């Protein structure tokens, strides 16, 4: 196993890793329900086995050591992956949905993963973004980009309002407040005719970029691409950018303070961390992420309705977070991807969706509460390329 | 708004308050002995209500219901529901709480929510096909193909005073509730078991030191909580006369809110909180224009305001966190 780890820690190993991951993801997306599930279960099983031998950690280390190679090959594969889907509408649709959920989960992670504040209202934040895009395009006739910006502003406000109780309460009380806000959000939308009521708002405007329509069939080099492909590129760009932001926050002083608050907020306060400010920060930045995800979702479906942003959607996002592994961006992305694929492929038997979430959550919590790819120890030396401690000399056994 | 209107709304409000009180007491009992919030209480209650409907349907098609007097029948049905709910309470303890005794408080919260989802989805998927099939088998339908599966709302038979008015029914339910609450308070304050429960709720380690069998008490608490919840489901179903498989979520959250408003460790607090919530809801619906739409939102606003300004509840001790 050690030799394998060592061969992983080369430029070639990193590229191969990337390619293997990309091929597996492609297969899971494209295959029919049964083979896709078999591959998925096998992949999860292999990850769990490899993790036991420390290979997953070695992989992370290898990616950090060969950052440039990893990033370049990753970007090439990311650009290739939408193209590889070609004209498969449905595969493109579920992949785009998965990307959007990944963004929302990254946002939710600031509160649930980093700070250990249970937030049962990520779907409400998504709804804020989605409804602002819908209202801007349908009622006011503005561009959806303005909608995204307004959604971000509103979600900052909403995050501050939602964050205020966190300064006074925590634990169960906090979860109850967020739950009440989520339920109240759905109810308010249901009874406001200006917001479309329970019928929702159809015909939300599509995104355009420099006059280029992002939801349209394009024919490039003789291949008729699925209409979602250009949109998927945009969502991918958002995902990459926001993942970068999330990782930077995680490694920043702020991320460290959030983790300290999660451990013990009194101790954090004693150490001079402004607990109220950091908690509000977690709610606001998480809200912005979720709001962007909601805006993108409205652009994909071209429809917003109260049922899309209800309590069960929040539960689904939480389930993704726990499945993937809290407080680890890569784990969260994996969890969101797996659960979206499962639920979207289960669409033919939609009655079972909620049951599947519930079962996955119960089983994961009992079997592996830290998720598939759990939180790692922060590796500041590897990332900043500056060694705080001199590498230890290989110790000689005194018996020799 | 006249005084008459208020008086007319009063029994309904007390009724609603009573149903919330039952769930809130369930939360209080569980929180008292275990310090965790068992979030599937509402779904367990709904399970009890469905159990009553199922037992009624099957017994009716077997011809047993018609042969028995009403009171005996209701008691029999309640007994069945109580057994089902108590069993489910034990299952929820073993599946969603026991594995997380040593981990953070977030875990049992999530696992009980997940278990609640499983319970309600199984109810929605399985109940109607199975019960209708069994009922048809009981009346010897040769071809039980006409079974409709699905997640439709389920009608609840009127079991309490079937020929009486709504007012009479409400009064009977309130009377039942008072009897149950009295029994519960006598149990908690006069029997050895109830006193041990309170001891555990105050200090678990010390209770263990004084020779109280903590594990047995916890299991008993779950049994008693299950029985209370089954009554809650029964009453709620009779009040609304229609039950939905996913109605338990809202009911559970309202009950938990009532418990929090009253103070999470106090049973009297649960009664007060439940009544407060019931009154707020029913009066908001009855007195405001178009209030039925706003009643839930107003109830949630009250909860949020309470949590922000008085998080320890109406009769809860203010806890100062020590390092």
Outline the structure in words.
Chain A has helices at 2-8, 11-30, 33-52, 55-65, 67-85, 89-114, 122-139, 144-168, 172-191, 228-251, 253-263, 265-270, 275-301, 311-324, 329-345, 353-367, 380-384; strands spanning 201-202, 208-209, 212-213, 219-220, 223-224, 303-304. Chain A is mainly α and 400 residues long. In chain A, the strands form 3 sheets. A two-stranded antiparallel ribbon of chain A has the order 1-6. Chain A is globular and about 75 Å long. The model of chain A has no long low-confidence stretch (mean pLDDT 82). Chain B has a single domain (12-309), classed as Orthogonal Bundle (ABC transporter involved in vitamin B12 uptake, BtuC). Chain B has a two-stranded antiparallel sheet. In chain B, helix 1 crosses helix 10. The model of chain B is unreliable at 141-149 (pLDDT under 50). The A-B interface holds A 116, 118, 164-165, 168-169, 171-173, 175-177, 179-181, 183-184, 187-188, 190-191, 266-267, 311, 315, 318-319, 322, 351-352, 354-355, 357-359, 361-362, 365-366, 369 and B 37, 95-96, 99-100, 103-107, 109-111, 113-118, 120-122, 124-125, 151, 249-250, 253, 256-257, 260, 264, 293-294, 296-297, 300-301, 303-304, 307-308, 311, 321, 323.
Percent range for helical residues of chain A? Answer: over 70%
Rg for CA atoms of chain A = 22 Å
**Mean model confidence by pLDDT of chain A:** 82
pLDDT < 50 runs, ≥5 residues of chain A: none
Low-confidence stretches of chain B: 141-149
Furnish the topology, listing elements before pairings.
The complex is a heterodimer of chains A (400) and B (323).
Chain A: H1 2-8, H2 11-30, H3 33-52, H4 55-65, H5 67-85, H6 89-114, H7 122-139, H8 144-168, H9 172-191, E1 201-202, E2 208-209, E3 212-213, E4 219-220, E5 223-224, H10 228-251, H11 253-263, H12 265-270, H13 275-301, E6 303-304, H14 311-324, H15 329-345, H16 353-367, H17 380-384
Antiparallel strand pairs in A: 1-6, 2-3, 4-5
Helix pairs in contact in A: 2-3, 2-5, 5-10, 6-10, 6-13, 6-14, 6-15, 7-8, 7-13, 8-13, 10-11, 11-13, 14-15, 14-16
Chain B: H1 3-34, H2 41-61, H3 64-67, H4 70-97, H5 106-138, E1 154-155, H6 166-190, H7 192-202, H8 204-209, H9 214-240, E2 242-243, H10 247-262, H11 267-287, H12 291-309
Antiparallel strand pairs in B: 1-2
Helix pairs in contact in B: 1-6, 1-7, 1-9, 1-10, 1-11, 2-4, 2-5, 2-9, 2-10, 4-5, 4-9, 6-7, 7-9, 10-11, 10-12, 11-12
């Amino acid at each position: 196993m050690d030799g394998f780890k060592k061969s992983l820690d080369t430029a070639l190993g990193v590229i191969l890793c990337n390619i293997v991951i990309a091929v597996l993801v492609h297969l899971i997306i494209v295959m029919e329900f049964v083979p896709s599930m078999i591959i998925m279960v096998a992949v999860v099983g292999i990850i769990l086995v490899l993790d036991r031998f420390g290979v997953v950690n070695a992989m992370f280390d290898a990616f950090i050591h060969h950052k440039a190679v990893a990033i370049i090959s990753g970007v090439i594969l990311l650009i290739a992956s939408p193209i590889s889907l070609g004209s498969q509408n449905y595969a493109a649709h579920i992949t785009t949905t998965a990307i959007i959920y990944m963004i929302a989960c990254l946002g939710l992670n600031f509160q649930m993963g980093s700070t250990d504040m249970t937030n049962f209202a990520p779907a409400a934040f998504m709804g804020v973004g989605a409804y602002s895009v819908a209202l801007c395009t349908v009622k006011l006739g503005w561009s959806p980009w303005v909608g995204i910006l307004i959604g971000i502003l509103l979600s900052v406000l909403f995050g501050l309002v939602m964050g205020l109780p966190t300064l006074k309460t925590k634990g169960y009380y906090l979860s109850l407040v967020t739950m009440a806000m989520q339920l109240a959000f759905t109810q308010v939308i249901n009874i406001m005719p200006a917001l479309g009521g329970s019928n929702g708002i159809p015909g939300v405007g599509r995104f355009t970029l420099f006059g280029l329509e992002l939801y349209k069939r394009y024919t490039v080099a003789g291949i008729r691409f699925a209409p979602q492909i250009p949109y998927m590129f945009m969502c991918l760009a958002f995902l990459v950018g926001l993942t970068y932001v999330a990782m930077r926050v995680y490694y920043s002083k702020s991320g460290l303070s959030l983790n300290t608050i999660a451990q013990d907020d009194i101790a954090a306060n004693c150490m001079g961390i402004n607990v109220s400010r950091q908690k509000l920060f977690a709610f606001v930045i998480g809200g912005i992420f979720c709001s962007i995800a909601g805006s993108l979702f409205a652009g994909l479906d071209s429809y917003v309705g109260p049922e899309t942003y209800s309590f069960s959607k929040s539960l689904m996002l939480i389930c993704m977070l726990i499945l993937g592994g809290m407080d680890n961006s890569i784990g969260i992305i994996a969890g969101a991807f797996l659960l979206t694929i499962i639920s979207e492929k289960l669409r033919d038997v939609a009655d079972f969706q909620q049951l599947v979430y519930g079962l996955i959550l119960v089983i994961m919590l009992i079997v592996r509460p830290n998720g598939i790819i759990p939180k790692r120890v922060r590796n500041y030396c590897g990332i900043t390329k500056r060694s705080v401690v001199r590498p230890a000399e290989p110790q000689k056994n005194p018996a020799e | 708004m006249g005084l008459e209107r208020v008086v007319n709304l009063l029994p309904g409000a007390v009724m609603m308050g009573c149903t919330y009180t039952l769930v809130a007491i369930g939360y209080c009992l569980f929180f008292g002995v275990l310090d965790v919030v068992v979030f599937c209480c509402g779904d367990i209650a709904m399970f009890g209500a469905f159990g009553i409907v199922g037992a009624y349907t099957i017994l009716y098609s077997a011809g047993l219901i018609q042969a028995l007097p009403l009171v005996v029948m209701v008691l029999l049905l309640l007994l069945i529901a109580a057994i089902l709910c108590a069993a489910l309470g034990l299952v929820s303890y073993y599946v969603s709480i026991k594995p997380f005794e040593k981990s953070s408080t977030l875990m049992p919260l999530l696992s009980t929510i997940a278990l609640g989802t499983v319970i309600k989805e199984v109810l929605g998927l399985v109940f109607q096909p199975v019960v209708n099939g069994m009922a048809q088998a009981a009346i010897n339908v040769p071809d039980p193909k006409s079974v409709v599966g699905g997640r439709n709302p389920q009608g609840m038979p009127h079991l309490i005073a079937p020929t009486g008015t709504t007012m009479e029914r409400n009064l009977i339910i309130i009377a039942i509730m008072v009897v149950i609450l009295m029994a519960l308070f006598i149990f908690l304050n006069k029997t050895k078991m109830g006193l041990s429960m309170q001891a555990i709720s105050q200090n678990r380690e010390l209770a263990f030191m004084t020779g109280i069998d903590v594990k047995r008490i916890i299991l008993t608490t779950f049994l008693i909580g299950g029985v209370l919840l089954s009554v809650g489901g029964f009453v709620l179903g009779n009040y609304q006369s229609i039950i939905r498989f996913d109605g338990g979520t809202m009911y559970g959250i309202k009950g938990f809110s009532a418990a929090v408003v009253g103070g999470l460790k106090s049973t009297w607090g649960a009664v007060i909180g439940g009544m407060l919530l019931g009154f707020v809801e029913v009066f908001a619906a009855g007195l405001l224009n178009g209030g039925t739409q706003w009643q839930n939102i107003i109830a949630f606003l009250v909860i949020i305001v309470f949590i922000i300004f008085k998080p320890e509840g109406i009769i809860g001790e203010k806890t100062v966190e020590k390092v």
